[in-house]
Amino acid sequence: MASGSCGPTDNTEDAVGLPIPESAHANPEEEQLIAKARQIAEEVLLPNAERSDQAEGPNRENFRALAEAGLLGIALPKEYGGSNVSGETQRAITEILASACGVTTFVQAQHHGPSRMIANGPNPALKERLVPELAAGRMLCGVSFAHLRRPGPPVLRAEPVPGGYRLYGTAPWVTGWGLMNQVVFGATLPDERFVYVWVPAHREEFPELFEGLTPPDGDWGRYQASPPLRLCAMNASATVTLTLEGLFVPEAHRLQFSDRETLRCNDRKGVLGGTALPMGCAAGAVRLLCSLAEKRPIPAIRQSAEHFTQELARTRRAIAEWNARNNEPDFFEKAVRLRAHAIRLAVRAAHAAVAASSGAANLLSNPAQRLFREAMFYTVQAQTQEVMAATLQLLEEETLEDLLPPPETSA
């Protein structure tokens, strides 16, 4: 990059010269979806980002735009109307969207995993009824199984009963409540295995999927949603806690079994998947720094914009390279540190955007404060104990040694 410029360090750039991700192995259909993601990020999400962040719930106009562009079916099979893109392309799309509007991207991210679990599940009727709707974005599916990673007694239990399961306990952090009309729950069985089940918010919306499926005693149980949790970041995500009191789930709505070791192995294999959101936040901060560098002719701002533009590009390349080498013996050791680096990059770049925005950053209408809060959120989102340890270790590397005055010498 030439000195004094805030231009791209990759071959691709958006409307403000920001380096943006591209999928090196994308086919033409995937390239078209990436282009649509860029267009929606620039024309729909970014202009409304502060309004969406401060809203009472998810911005439904944003979700309509994502659905119309086919971006809510990217993880689903083509036979059901999805596009089944590669993991690389899905990460690129997520980063592009997250650079524009964190809360919209976070909420829509909830939808992909459980939708894919339904598509891969054993029940053909469930697939035929739900997956085309999920792929088109006419329905959205929430998820609650991050609690399975917690040590200690399970917060959500599944008791086998004739014909299915009864769920007892709490499902914390259910995001998109009211926008999502169904949830995939993960619950712990008496033998400590995990079971994943599909539950609609309202059975009446899916009568054909409950035909002939009734609890042995006729009692369906119940659930209760808390008011939306008041959050520092992602407050508009409509995140609630669900309390389940013997809620009956038919065996036909079971999606899969798993266990703690499988969950741990999947977390380790997919550790770099969690970099897309903080990298998008960092990209949004770089975008803002570049814009500020144009508006405020202060050398320090331009220098910061150039620095983070370059670091963003280098980090993106490192993530792509390690994703391609995920069978190497030291993959996880390097990947978890790279995940922590992506988190810290988001925090540092957003903090730089706050500093460069001066006092205006304290206004809720200013994007710098939003990005800084989003970076905080990504520090703990989908956090395992290993990611926490790597993040803390990286933060501890900052020292005061270079700033300490030299020891006084005696006269």
UniProtKB/TrEMBL annotation:
UniProt domain Acyl-CoA dehydrogenase/oxidase N-terminal: residue ranges: 28-137
UniProt-listed SUPFAM superfamilies: Acyl-CoA dehydrogenase NM domain-like (SSF56645)
Pfam families xref list: Acyl-CoA_dh_N
Sequence ranges of Polar residues compositional bias: 1-10
Cleaved signal peptide residues: none
Domain of life: Bacteria
Cited InterPro entries: Acyl-CoA_Oxase/DH_mid-dom_sf, AcylCoA_DH/ox_N, AcylCoA_DH/ox_N_sf, AcylCoA_DH/oxidase_NM_dom_sf
GO MF entry, a single one: flavin adenine dinucleotide binding
Segments for region (Disordered): 1-29
Protein name from the UniProt record: Acyl-CoA dehydrogenases
Species annotation: Chthonomonas calidirosea (strain DSM 23976 / ICMP 18418 / T49)
